[in-house]
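Our preliminary data section would be incomplete without showing what the modeling component actually yields. Below, a chain of 163 amino acids is followed by its predicted structure, encoded as tokens that our downstream tools consume directly.
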Amino acid sequence: VPELAGKEAVFAVSCLKVQRRVLPPTTDDFADKVKSGMLWTELDAKLREGVQAEADSLQRRATHREIERALIAKLPDDFEVPETLLEQVGKERFAAMLADMRERGAGDEQLKELISKENYDRYLAISRPSTVLQVKGDFALKEVGRQQGLAVSRDEVDDEVMS
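Predicted structure:
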């Protein structure tokens, strides 16, 4: 309710139940319940490996973002992104957003409500700054690759996408 935004409120609450999460003991029996025949030391190693892989992935993405930001900052101030390219990337991002929503459980009716000229135009306007940065970053990275003689084969791209 928009007219209540920013107003203070007081609520009466009845607590029906208080629970405490109790973790199971870290034993071979627990590990065996997770995966038949697995020992606790194996489960612990797998969990640590997964956590480390996620941390490495987050670090790699953050590093790539910072490199891209630095490259974009080095672009000339008068570097303009073609409007047709912005429209194409915006359309792809809008489609990806809808696909992601469907994957997360949004129903067809909910998605149909979002697919309108008005919503699409609003999305393009809101996402325009990040779309411009994405396109500039892509241009900058491609130029660095070209200058450094870096090339990735189609097979390498396919392998990376599939992994």
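The chain has a mean pLDDT of 92. The helical segments are 28-34, 40-74, 83-103, 108-114, 117-148, 154-162. Preliminary results of this kind motivate Aim 1 of the renewal.
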